[in-house]
Specification:
Elements: E1 5-11, H1 25-42, H2 47-50, E2 56-66, E3 75-85, E4 89-98, E5 101-113, H3 125-132
Antiparallel strand pairs: 1-3, 2-5, 3-4, 4-5
Length: 135
C-alpha cells in the first residue's frame, strides 16, 4: 500500500508550549490525533458519531522520534499517511514539519474496538471499503 499523506496546518499557541516557549513533547501527539481525526472526517466520518455504530478508534501503540523543537507561533504541517489497513487496525506514519524541516515523526497503530465493551472488533465493512478505496 502507498502512504498518501493527509496534511493539516497547525499553529503553535502559548498553550502548546512550556515556560521556554518550546512545544511540550506530548502536544505533538495531540497534533497527530487532530490530523487523523481530520483525515477520517474527509472520508465522511466523525469520531463522536462512531459510537452509534458501536465502535471507536483508539490508539493501540506509538513509537515517536523527536528531532527538533517547535516554538510558539510556528506554522506547522502535520501529516497522516496510512501505511497498512487491517480489518481491526490502521497503521499510520505521521510527521510534524516546519517548512522543510522534520521536527517529529511517529508510527501509530490505531485499533477498532466496540464502544460498549471496549474490546477489539472489525470495523464496519462500509468503512473498511471506504478507507481501502482511498489507497
Amino acid at each position: 500500500m502507498t502512504e498518501p499523506a493527509f496534511h493539516l496546518p497547525i499553529r503553535v499557541y502559548i498553550e502548546d508550549t512550556d515556560a521556554g516557549g518550546i512545544v511540550y513533547y506530548v502536544n505533538y501527539l495531540k497534533f497527530m490525533e487532530r490530523a487523523r481525526t481530520e483525515w477520517l472526517r474527509t472520508l465522511g466520518y466523525q469520531h463522536y458519531a462512531l459510537v452509534g455504530g458501536n465502535f471507536l478508534f483508539v490508539v493501540h501503540s506509538c513509537a515517536v522520534r523527536y528531532h527538533r523543537p517547535a516554538r510558539i507561533d510556528d506554522a506547522l504541517q502535520v501529516t497522516a499517511g496510512l501505511r497498512r489497513l487491517g480489518r481491526a487496525t490502521l497503521d499510520f506514519v505521521q510527521q510534524v514539519w516546519r517548512g522543510d524541516e522534520l521536527l517529529c515523526e511517529a508510527e501509530v497503530r490505531v485499533a477498532c474496538v466496540s464502544a460498549d465493551g471496549v474490546r477489539p472488533r472489525a470495523m464496519p465493512e462500509a468503512l473498511y471499503l471506504n478507507i481501502k478505496n482511498t489507497l
